[in-house]
Amino acid sequence: MKTQVGIIGGGPSGLLLSQLLHLQGIDTIILEQRSREYVLGRIRAGVLEQGFADLMREAQCGERMDSEGEIHDGFYIAHDGIKDRVDLHGLTNGNSVVVYGQTELTRDLYEAREKAGGIVIHNAEDVKPHDITSDAPYLTYRSGDEIKRVDCDYIVGADGFHGVSRKSIPRDKIQEFERVYPFGWLGVLSRTKPVSPELIYAKHERGFALCSLRSQVLSRYYIQVPLTDSVEDWSDDAFWAELKARLPEDVANEMTTGPSIEKSIAPLRSFVAEPMRYGNMFLAGDAAHIVPPTGARGLNSAASDIYYLYHAMLDHYKKGDDKGLEDYSAKALARVWKGQRFSWWMTTLLHSFPDNSDFDNHLQQTDLEYLFSSESAQKSLAENYVGLPF
Ligand code: APR
Ligand code: PHB
To answer: Which of 88, 253, 297, 362 is 20 to 30 A from 286 (CA-CA)?
Structure first.
């Protein structure tokens, strides 16, 4: 097979880029190691910046997001038994975020690719990029007993943190930056009415908690747990009791509990790989960077990668101008690192760190007090949360 852009990974990054390029007549093939059902079975975050939402609309995939997603003009930070509201709309001259599950967004992208006759090869095993630094790179993958080949002009590694693309770059050609946090998030999905119409991030001495949602009948909750915990350690009752213990009393009293339909623990890490290009292979999304979910930057960091790569590919194929491709890594990393900073800052602000000194804890409390005593501090939080410009 031959295509113009060979994409490894059929998650949101790969699918969105493929759909955007398709609409401009640029051919892609996506090699996805899992089945479509498996990919759609992943429960992921649900807060989209306007930039991501706009890209979905440009990709002609925004209809269900616009009809079923919720526009949120603010969120709460609960602390010391109260909750303070961050007025995103007022602090950013009218900007907001869209709450719409990544699972649904990925489903919309798959349906768009299918409708357009896009080639997404599932269960593509042992995908490997070859001749990455040549002008004729190619991909191979195993289908049953057969090794198949996809010749392309460019390869995009959109295969997530555990993918093959980043690991195919020689160690001396890539630098990795990482911070692993000493806790994880235990997440629960339940068919219950969300406790609050807007998200509540809670800082508590027992640990962080987050009240989020997918719709008015589907709630998503998280609590910070030690890395030594496993899902088996947490019955539904234990989860609900601990979540309530970390929330202001008036919120806890309003909580509708119910059976978990999904329960999992995710570790938290900050990670960036530089550069995001090697030869004619470009890294995008989780393949190049990971953030702790506290700042809801995960998918939104991928959005700017896709935006830059999409326009760079357009300039190459339509105008013969390669400046976008040459500038891609530096440009993408500049925004990625701002998302890293914000995610690290919100994580540090709101979580309990077992090894914190008394000084650290006092500083953390002061950071929170400063935030709610300063409109400038809240403006900074708000502009990062709704998304810095591409
Ligand atoms: N070969 C082919 N496909 C692969 C390989 C491989 N070797 N390794 C991983 N994949 C696939 C995965 O199965 C997955 O479907 O690549 C896809 C990567 O998708 P994501 O991990 O969702 O990454 P991305 O598309 O960049 O989306 C980022 O996902 O993890 C969240 O918080 C993150 O919201 C952000 C979003
Ligand atoms: C979610 O709804 O899953 C969610 C929302 C906001 C976050 C993290 C996760 O910061």
So the answer is: 88
